[in-house]
Amino acid sequence: MDTPQKSITQIETPVSKSRFEDSPVFNYINSLSPIRPVKSIPNPHQFSTLNFTSPPSVFTSPHLTSSHKESRFFKTHHPSPDPTILVQESPDDSKSNEEAAAEADATTEFNIDASTEMEQPQIVKYDVKETNLDETTDLSLVPYASPPRKENGSASEDAPGMEMYDNVQGKNETPDWDRLIADSSEFLIFSSPNDSEAFRCLMMQRASPSQAPSVMMPTMQPGSINEPESSNASPYGAVSVLHRGIRRRCLDFEMPGNKQTSSENNTASRCVVPSIGLHLNALLMSTKDCTTNNTTHDYSCSEKYQVGLQGSSSTLQETLDQTETETREDVPVEPTLEELHLSSPKKKRQLEAGEGESCKRCNCKKSKCLKLYCECFAAGVYCIEPCSCIDCFNKPIHEDTVLATRKQIESRNPLAFAPKVIKSSDLVLETGDDASKTPASARHKRGCNCKKSNCLKKYCECFQGGVGCSINCRCEGCKNAFGRKDGSAIVDMEAEQEEENETSVKNRRAKTQENSEVYLMRKEESSALPATPMSVYRQQLVQLKNMMPPPQSVLGVGSSSSGMFNSQYTRKPEMKSLETVAEDGAEEMPEILSHSSIDNINAVSPNGKRVSPPHLDSSSSGRRSGGRKLILQSIPTFPSLTPQH
DNA sequence: GAGTTTGAAACT
DNA sequence: CAGTTTCAAACTC
């Protein structure tokens, strides 16, 4: 906020200086002048920021991968842009107004100094950084802490934002940052499922304001030093790191008065939406309406959640568990999806088991939850109480083991923890698979190998993922309701069923149709719901991006499944970037983008159905056309976004 | 709830 | 890379 103004003022000043340089008095005045303008100009400044942020958001969002966004987000904290961030955040944050104001003033002064040093360069630098960083994934690899300092140099240090940030954080240094970034990055992850995560994160915090921050912070920062201060002493501090990430994501949401909400949250319902911003609430409402949507994001949510937790200690898990349980209770959605999907009471059973929902609950007995057999592990989530696993090592306590195992698995198969289902566009890129050939908009990465299930049961990962089988599949007798391997779409299901002359065929057909419908519902909902929250986040993120420097930390892989671990593990930039882009970005991004505008979201979510759900429809109805995929993903998204915003 | 089926993951 | 074993989810009863 302040920075831009300052910069502007500064920029302007030079001209004035040229005029008045002659007289030292003027110079003196000039030196003083910047200060006032900065403070006094808040309005213009805001506008400027808005303008500044918004345009890039539109442009950037599409271009940027989720990971970038995430990374950026984190970066922002550190780098120069701080002032803006600070300004925004400080108010948002629970900092006492007085303190915040005082700090702001102080910061402004510092900013001026810093800005004077940096001045225009800063701003310019800003943009440049973004572009550069975005473009170069390498930067992402760079240790989070180091870059900002280096880049900004003294300026960054001096930068009020930095100070603020440091103060808030208690000045834990790099190591914390890395972690923090990694953890936060996960939260930031944009994969559609993630949206829910973000929600949850918010939920978490809101739900247990005291706990959430503290817990979160611990996760973020191993050193407990900051925690007490942040959480207790200064609400702001507590919120600080975590919140920032969250805030940024939820900025809009929280705007209304997060502090209060957070404070309220303590007493108030944890899982409840109320804590979340209006948008989120609306979304949730919509989601509830949609009901089915949750399934997707459930999964993701829980995952991310836990992912975020990963770093965290058991306490986090506890909170998560609580939140999960609460959320589950609150949100009937997930079960509906699977229930619908299978349309059988059993599904409810599953739901009861907790499986249906976002949270994965395993039942491992021999794998110790350290193999991909374990759904929790595979999803990048720690096992939680509801899990009935035996000798489980997939717990924060055994973080090292988990990580090591994970690395091993990844070393074997870099994509082991990547989302299994990828959208068609991605597939096209990766496999070169013709969209036209592939019935479904999304495909299973590796493809299934079903022999007896005819890809009509959840044994089939394709079917389970709600996607049609593709060329990659080696299944036999594929009758995948979402799209056959041969390319026949769901629409063809009828034909398939016709083919099946068996009496059961009718039943199956009904089921399959249900499934397909459910699937559509689910997808629409899921897309709508996740998308909406995502879109919001993205918007915010975009804004943040604009404000913030490029991402240094991990490439936030959007993949829902891999989320946690990915963040923690240094990813192969290539792989991840591709996947991320393809999956999160390509798949969801477009949708989100198309819906990205809040307006769109509202419009869509409330009804629970999107106006034009691309891939969903195709998959469900089997009416997918490869062409459609491409169109939907790539083309529409950008235009739609820009105009709206 | 127990048992069976299934196919992915892991192993050889 | 192919075949086999292991494993846990999905499913059935």
From TrEMBL:
Biased composition (Polar residues): 1-16, 43-65, 594-605, 634-645
CRC domain sequence ranges: 358-483
InterPro entries reported in the protein's UniProt record: CRC, Tesmin/TSO1-like_CXC, TSO1-like
GO CC aspect terms: nucleus
Keyword list, A-Z: Developmental protein, Nucleus
Molecular function terms from GO: DNA-binding transcription factor activity
Record localization: Nucleus
Pfam families the UniProt entry points to: TCR
Recorded family membership: Belongs to the lin-54 family.
Name of this chain's protein: CRC domain-containing protein
Organism name: Brassica campestris
Taxonomic classification: Eukaryota, Viridiplantae, Streptophyta, Embryophyta, Tracheophyta
